[in-house]
Amino acid sequence: MRPCPCGSGASLDDCCGPVLGGAAAPTAEALMRSRYAAHVLRDFDHLQRTHAPETRGGFDRAAAERQAGGVEWLGLEIHAAGAGGASDDAGTVEFTARYREGGQARAFREVSRFRREQGRWVYVDGLPVPVAAAPKAAKVGRNDPCPCGSGRKFKKCCGA
Asked: Is this model's pTM higher than 0.90 or not?
């Protein structure tokens, strides 16, 4: 059983795998999770096809592929989902994606907007959440579990 990169605790086959394979995501959050998994797995086709039509042309695949070479994805945390359920036509998902780039652990927090088109969720756009607006994280000790959700100690994971 290969765990899903989105951090749901389910296997890839039972979580994001079907969506990455072309199945419709049941919710906006499920699409968000699959897009994170696509970054981890470098599935740029999924990232491109899940953009809303008006933004799909602005997706720079070559730039995404270049950037991916220097990024190690460490974890996804979903903070909130507004609407975006099975019976909704629009929704938002606020998340933090943690990654390591250039030897430094980093995080990106965003509120992403999604909408349903012809029965399929698409990514419309995202608004970064300023660091000042994000809640302050508790200090993590060297021997504490890593906040990225890897299950390893901080000193052997993001703190390395």
From this structure: no
